[in-house]
Amino acid sequence: MTTLIWDLDGTLFDSYKAILAGIEEAYAHYGLIYDHEAIKNFILKESVHALFERVAQENNLDYDAFNAARAEHLTTHNHLVKLLPGAKEILEWAHQEGFSQFIFTHKGHNAHRLLADLGIAHYFTEVVTGDDGFKRKPDPEALNYLADKYGFEKEDAYYIGDRQLDAECARKAGVKSLNLTVETNSYNQHIPDLLAVAQHVQKK
Fold it and tell me: Which residue has the higher pLDDT, 139 or 74?
């Protein structure tokens, strides 16, 4: 059976306004200079985790406390999170095709609330978040866990994301990669939008 595993931020969710609002609050709390464009570019290329680790080290801050300042009011920005174009349509298409669908995201447990609020929670068999204790991408631990638990064949599975971390995670797990920003290469297929998933998934 064909299996689709989805990333959230930048893949199904248009959530960077909410993410950046939380980062700006944390910076303000610690009196740090907030450069919107530089920070946005960094987290798109790397991750919020990598950003906060670097800034905490450079400014001699406790990482956990610094990150807590961002997470404290996280849900207050949920109204800024929207579905990306084609998200609901491609999820419904996959559902009609009988595919299994999962999520692996670095986002915390707030992901569950957002999925429910945006009306797409019912499409997923399991949602693995950053609060579930698995190693961070590109480590394939979470993808391996899903494959082991649900018994799907990796050669019939796709991890769909929007960053190099996602493509690397797929490669290390031995599943196919479809990615919105990473160019096509030996282990990844670039897709211009979410609806293009239907063109590249092999039904089985």
Answer: 139
